[in-house]
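Hi R.,

As promised, here are both runs. First protein below:
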Amino acid sequence: MSATRTGEPATPTDPDPHRWWGLVVIALAQMMVVLDSTIVNIALPSAQRDLGMSDGSRQWVITAYTLAFGGLLLLGGRIADLAGRKRTFVIGLAGFAAASALGGAATTPGMLFGARALQGVFAAVLAPSAMSLLSTTFTVPGERAKAFGIYGALAAGGSATGLIVGGVLTEYLDWRWCLYVNVPVAVAAVFGALALLRDRPGHGGAHLDIPGVLLGCGGLTALVYGFAEAEPRGWTDPLVLALFAAAVLLLAAFVAWQKRAPGPLLPLHVVSDRTRAGCFLAIMLAVVGMFGLYLFMTYYFQVVLGYSPVRTGLAFLPMTAAIVTGSTQISARLLPHLPPRLLMVPGMLLACGGMLLLTRLTVHSAYATEILPALLLMGFGMGLTYMPVFSTATAGIAPRDSGVVSATVNTSQQVGGSIGTALLNTVATTSSASYVTAHLAAPAERGGIVREGIVHGYTVALWPAAGITLLAGLVAGLMVTAKAPKHGARAETLVPEPAT
């Protein structure tokens, strides 16, 4: 194989004069997709009461979205490459708005589950289109760093922002507005995209890799579904084991097929590059720890400290501010001059330190002195990590593959979130139950002991979360070997041509 230029230009001859307004449109869309991973969580109790959902089925409000989103991302990324990123971006926005309106108007649990699955389908088209548009619009390292700094801040801080917005809408309006709020945002983004975004035509003559779609999307769906079911059912449940076995078989067959497919869904040179593979693995491991922290601290604030939904969201606000600062004011300024791992490794060390501080939580921990410093460390750490991961993973890739690379980054996050939620929640609940059993001496003490047990479970689970975050830093240090981009130079689009 030899490194050759692709037959198409890496960028237009002149920078797009509307590129910064285009970034606003892309940022709006990305924020909407990320918000929907958490905004409905706080609304879930109200929706359950309103629609008469059972405890066993309520998880599908969350699972239907993550399953469709995570399972179809690779397909969405390749469709963006074939049909054109701007076109799929607009279609994704319109479909997401329609699915959100349907969910907000739901009169039965099944209607809501179906709407959430549709949201996931269109998010799988929208998210990779957004990142690949960003990648192909901003190619000068200084500008690229600023653009990806904003994108990274939204990706890392959007989940916490979703908790705030979800709390406000649920408490002061109605749970349905957690879905309706997407409609005006999406409509504004559609008009902005049509007016401001530029994109080269897609590769309409190429054929979609149907066997790759079935094997790859089937394997990812089985994997995400397996982790989702591991949380309520347990890791040794026959269904969970069957899903994991199916995922392994399907993904192994997918890799084997991609080696000989004439037009592969995921060209293997995309993931065989050491730096790019390191970015994918590092972000997956980092998200495991981050989702664990969001999960535990949301419940800690509401169940243990008795915070309202709005106050819970506001408690995360300093961490969101730290993420934005780390991404836009530190990473974006330093990345054009430093190798990406010199930001990612310290970022993961800071995030790990924040989690270790939280292992000292008690039922009476003070927010200002014991919780806030840990959230700030976590926020700065994730801000230093997300932005260089996104920028480096998508740098130097052929425009024809930018959609599928963006989809692979998003897939890494989805898989990491699924692992983090299932694995760390299992550790926490098991540890809590053992603590309560060992310490409960009299029924009169039950309330206090249960609260202590909940906190004990969280602190035990935060140890492996910190360890996985540290492992993400190690992966970044060893695998992400890219040098600092030269300030002011355009990113090259040199890719190894597949062997023929």
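And here is the second one, sequence first, then its structure tokens:
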Amino acid sequence: MSRESEAELPGDVLPGVLSESLHAELVAFRRDLHMHPELGNQEFRTTAAIKERLEQAGLKPRVLATGTGLICDIGIAEGHEAERTAVPMLALRADIDALPIPDTKTDCPYRSTVPDRAHACGHDVHTAVVLGAGLVLADLDAKGLLSRPVRLVFQPAEEVLPGGALGAIGDGALDNVGRILAVHCDPRVEVGRIGLRHGPITSACDRLEVALDGPGGHTARPHLTTDLVTAVARVAVDVPALVARRVDTRAGLALTWGRIESGHAPNVVPQHAELSGTVRCLDLDAWRDAPDIVHAAIDEIATLHRAKSEINYVRGVPPVVNDRESTELLRRSMVARRGMKSVESTQQSLGGEDFSWYLENVPGAMARLGVRAPGDRMVRDLHQGDFDADEYAITVGVEMFTAAALLDDV
């Protein structure tokens, strides 16, 4: 039996292509979110819009305790809540927050109406995909065609370290969940396709802030001071090299500075200096050891230059490590709907994603959802003000998730 035939869905319960009317509705929903982006933990309008549409479908979403984000179960009839413990649920997760950057797209009728706010990471697309999958699955459930319960997780604050996933988990998002799936827009992948990888698909990302202090003075007498400018320069240069040498190079542990400040006058040795940056890591075990390694390296260099160091190491997110079975489920689901050529291999990125916190608790996988328009040869990236997505990706994501719900037998 071919791999394609193995992936066929049971019966003819799902149309090969999403209906034009639902696709149009989801595109309109996505554009409305795109025009009204909200930052992490401020997604009140977004939450209300999702809740209203789910309730129109006869579902009963629950807003998270933080007031933004919500979860919604499908396939558990009222009065049969005990069934939650009988069959583990499949969870579909979307992140709903935007970025604090301006929307720089021109001639776009749905560009952001909020100054310095934009859905430049595709979270509006993720939301439309999970919403659409929920609407299709609710309809299938009403017809008795959904064999296992599904939970929709609309999570706030993905862009806020250490991520809104932790709050959602604390509020029961993973209660009786056996597997969780997600997508992330990828402008390098053509629409109609997904990128998959078993194992780590993103990297860990932490934030680091360092303050150095010491007695200042006149530049004519640096020997009577703690030369903080030199000290902060050595920390900036030497610490990343020390850190890289103290772990297996295959772990990909990298400290990169984004800000350095010290001094106000050319003839005054300052008393205070600051650096800030990020620590990224490809390997989960090395990430767990990273704070101790970084602290030791900074203290070593600061002490050498007689500077007092104060370190604020902010834990971010571990790598997203895709479970093999969940990755295979996404592959089978995509092949069932789009054929073998709709799936391509993808590389591990150095970006961080708080979907990783869910995978610390249950197996799951994230797919890279293609959003590049056919024929578009321009190199694009996320977190840019001109980011946009080919909206046909919404239909592709909905079909993949609904197929996964029908194929999953956990």
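A quick note on the second one: The radius of gyration is 24 Å. Let me know what you think.

Best,
J.
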